[in-house]
Amino acid sequence: MSSTVSLTHRNNKNLVKALVRFVNLKVARPSLKAFIFAYLYVTLPKVINHISIAIKKKDYKSILPRILKVITKAFHPFKFPAFAASLIAIINILEPIVARFLRVSKRFHGTTETVFVATFISSFIAASVSFPQFQNHIIGYGRFLSLDLTLLVLSRAIDTTLSSTLSAVLPPFFQQFGDGLLFIASCTPIMYSWFFRPDRLPPAYRKWITSAANMDDEIVGVLKSLHDGTVKYGEKSDYLADYCERYGQDPAQADFSQDSPLPCKTVHAFKTSNCEVHALWRFVRGFKFAFKLYGSINAFMLLIPKKNIAMTLRLRRALQSSIRSSCFLGAFIALDWYGVCLTRTRLFPKLFPEVPKQTWDITWGPAVGAFLCGFSSFVESAQRRKELALFVFPRALGTLVPTEATDKNLLIERFTFSMSMAILVAYCKKNPKSVRGIFGKGLTAVMSISS
């Protein structure tokens, strides 16, 4: 009798130890990792931004209070770090339970298939439970804060599913140039929306494009107004009067009463009437803008020590990377501008003389520019081209979905996020390398997945 009690006590003790070990390794540690990664992702950019703004304004006293406010607010139970931690915790708690049920039911054959399905179901349930609370909280600060995350997860799920299932059957052409083609396909609706439907782009992203493109607001506005029909050629309008005066030009150069498109020199901010020279000028301006950005980033990365790599080699690589990426952005801007000119004056009116000339301003000019600018990605290396494609893909999807925060749209977003997250985690468990980019590396690290 005593031996039976002792055996039962020992089994219970072993069970408690196993449970504690499971909670520690599979729940607590991954959740803590997720919280830390998400916390740094949320706070670091804000801290750096506050410091840089304070230094520019020489308002040094505000630095510490602002930093403290940022790092404390991120601990809110409904913010992204807590959401990421709870998501990972629920997934890892549910997964062995679901896997056990699937093995008992014998509905799936083989360990790999069972684990894949168990991970998918667990992740879908976890996302369905965790995401609504986070969504309800975050949309109070801006609709795109929630939608951007959903589109990011959706785009990665689509990319992972297609690359995992079609990689073996895709022709070599698509395997080599697929990321470049994805970048072109993504940039076209993004830049078209920037011209005609700016409300479909996140405000910060739209502002960054405007800053990089260095296009006057009046020119963007007049193209949109022509597209919407609020401004028409052949009808008098002083829409660009202030624009002309700002550059010290006669407002007659922006006369809409003439039944013909605006002169190229007017569209070129009066720099030149030659479209090719103007495109080159835009390339140079874009290159300078980008070099300040990429040069600063690469210079900062040089401060991080690396073993077995000489500083001279790192300096050369940093300079090459900065120049190459700056050439990419310069080419992106120049091709977008030249696409508009090519369509409205250089080529299309000569190929299709019977089409009214103003037609090219209304839609086709910006559309061709939006298409051509994506070819600039081929200036970059294959690795950078992949990163660029994965970066713009979710924003392209965003131009195709309604942004209003109605109950129906929010419900669709919850389902989309849950399904996409389930696909990503399941594929990541099956093959850690199947989820491409930094997102896949982060998910693999958080979930403590080993290849």
TrEMBL record:
Q: Where is the signal peptide?
A: none
Name the source's superkingdom.
Eukaryota
**Quick check: keyword Membrane in the entry?**
yes
Which keywords does UniProt give here?
A: Membrane, Transmembrane, Transmembrane helix
Protein's organism: Candida tenuis (strain ATCC 10573 / BCRC 21748 / CBS 615 / JCM 9827 / NBRC 10315 / NRRL Y-1498 / VKM Y-70)
Q: What parts of the sequence cross the membrane? A: 34-55, 76-94, 114-131, 178-196, 321-340, 360-379
> InterPro entries, from UniProt?
Tmem135
Q: What is this protein called?
A: Transmembrane protein 135 N-terminal domain-containing protein
Keyword Nucleotidyltransferase recorded = no
